[in-house]
Amino acid sequence: MSSAAEQETRAAQRETRDGTPARPDGTPARPSATAVGHPAGHRPTAVAPRRDRSPAPAAGPAVLPGSPEPLGARPCRGPDGAWGTNFALWAGGAEAVELCLFDDDGHELRRPLTELTHEVWHGFVPGVLPGRRYGYRVHGRWDPWTGARWNPAKLLLDPYARAVDGDFALPAEVYGHVRDWPQQHVADTVRDDRDSAPYVPKGVVVGDDTADGAPDEWTEDRRPKTPWAESVIYELHVRGFTMRHPGVPPELRGTYAGLAHPAAIEHLTRLGVTAVELLPVHQFAHEDHLLRRGLRNYWGYNSIGYFAPHAGYAAGGTRGQQVGEFRRMVRALHAAGIEVILDVVYNHTAEANELGPTLSLRGVDNRGYYRLQQDPRRYADFTGCGNTLNVLQPHVLRLITDSLRYWVTEMGVDGFRFDLASALARAAHGVDMLSPFLAVVAQDPVLRRVKLIAEPWDVGSGGYQVGAFPPLWVEWNDRYRDAVRDFWRGALPDARDLGYRLTGSSDLYERGGRRPYASVNFITAHDGFTLRDLVSYERKHNEANGEGNRDGSPDNRAWNCGAEGETDDPGIRALRRRQLRNLLATLLLSTGVPMLVAGDELGRTQGGNNNAYCQDNETGWLDWSLLEDPGWRALTELTARLIRLRRAHPVLRRPAFFSGLARPPEGLRDLAWFTPHGTEMTESDWYAPTTALGAYLSGRELPQRDPHGAPVTDDSFLALLHAGPRPVTFTLPGRPWARGYELLLDTAREEQGAPPGTLLAAGAPIELPERSVLLLRALTSVDLRQKTE
């Protein structure tokens, strides 16, 4: 980027005689206001005010030079020892920057930041203390044809604001262009000079000790530090998890404090999950098209403040109190042994495309923060949300990594799930696993030590990158989701893909030294059907979203078990509950990192809505009354028992891939696959259609050692999966695999409170119930003798 003086010189050189910015060919950059007419009451100006046209400073404290580091608003002592706040904003192409301070009555005091160091505008204001609200007005050229969209009439949120007070209502005044200009094809080129300050939230100055006593250093011994191989992730929504929870006080429901409440944490510990993955908690805005329909963005994938906890989830106030409340929530979860992973959206912002509002980055430096097309009036969109952050720009990269480090070191979180991570891995000519973002994270001494989860795709060409991310990263494995769904609905053509997915997806992750836990296995996620809806609906029912049921994916890979939606048919209801048990057992017995979605263990339904991003209501919230139903309570108990079983047996959470090689002296393999005839599967068996197969997992000589260096051994297990509509005879493998078997799990049974404990003879045929999972422990001669004595 060039200096402010160079920007001003070039602006002057490119103006036409009438003062309108010119295109490269010298023609006017846009129709003038008089050429196309304008709505009464607000005539757009042709160019942004020049620096000498800035408002005269009002009476108030003088702005001292301050420091360009750190960025943001940071309380500190001034040169005379008195407290104040240092403000620093990167705005490389700007001509001038005004700091706007607001008192409790909303009165605005503007102070120019006159110091410019390496494209950072900065100043120290004595007497400005934590809790003070502020924003910026940034001056520069208005020339959308070159990507320049400065508009000082728009109050901008500091990209480094650590708290936000207020909400985004998105009236026409918050748009940098005249949103309702009659000629919509040029509307984005006509500047709107109305003041947006009354309609937008403000940043809040936050001290290091805001609402929370002395600074918390988050020493490492406070973190659970659960190894990847032992992790069980639980995806939840801060608001939706507690809004209907009867054990959480009403005033705390839907907040950080509500999630920290013992009643909420008790459910998590009873299940046995090791980490919560929170849907976005960065400050976000609601889209205009939702507000017009009386809806709101519920999920939060519309970020606008990467350092600020979303104010709408705070119970104790929004003038910095949300920071302390979030920290206390993290501490409470850590005390329960639960890690906190944030779902983060650094690929785009809430400012959308050229027709979107001007809230922050667009008004600070549009060309610096966003990827633009060859026609710089337009945005490159690899996210489907209108814009894409330009992570090739050093200060954008710094914004993201500063934000990540802040949430780790000062807010205490344990990792991140990166929404549309391929967009962050894009270099100049496509997705590149040596891209600046991935390289910076790999060498960062803070970030390389936390959990890093990629959603390994975006909507651009070449964006699907499942299996391609480098070591340190794990990935959402949608191929696991698809294979397991297809198997249990009877749509899998053969067993090959299922075999890979159940055992860690070595075909995707074994290269480059990665481990089975590089695969985050999931069957459902926040987007798509809930687990109950997956077995109750085959078609999406998103009418409540107000988009004519056009939104949401039509590819659900779902089977409704014979009726669309809820039914009173007892046979269908029983089959659905059995399918739920099958899906949960498959997920929690698979090698890799399982991810559950909050409420799936309760039988939560969204009524067939597979895109409930705007359903901030009972459709999106957990219904805790389901636990009063014995059938759904049994499903919760089964989920907890499967997690306990997984925790107790390292063979079910291997940190290394299976080899499949026979080992002396008996020729046992660490992994063997069996047909219903009791014989090992051959090459041709893998290519043949099948509904039933068995997987033998050997606990002998696991490829790991305990902390003292001793070899780790475990029981061996035989898992039988049958997705067919009728029972089949399955001959259990005999010697050398086992001398007998003990039945631990049978999903055909409604009651799952305790293992059946049935003993079965090795080499003998059993009847495998239709649509069921059986888990059997392989018994040695000693085991069998003890069981029969």
Automatic annotation (TrEMBL):
Glycosyl hydrolase family 13 catalytic domain sequence ranges: 235-646
GO molecular function: amylo-alpha-1,6-glucosidase activity
Similarity comment: family membership: Belongs to the glycosyl hydrolase 13 family.
Species assigned in the record: Streptomyces violaceusniger
Keyword tags: Glycosidase, Hydrolase
Domain of life: Bacteria
Pfam families per the UniProt record, alphabetical: CBM_48
GO biological process, one term: glycogen catabolic process
Stretch list, region Disordered: 1-77, 190-222, 542-564
UniProt keyword Transcription regulation present: no
Compositional bias segments (type: Basic and acidic residues): 7-20, 542-554
Segments of skewed composition (Low complexity): 55-66
Stretches with biased composition (Acidic residues): 209-219
Protein's recorded name: Glycogen operon protein GlgX homolog
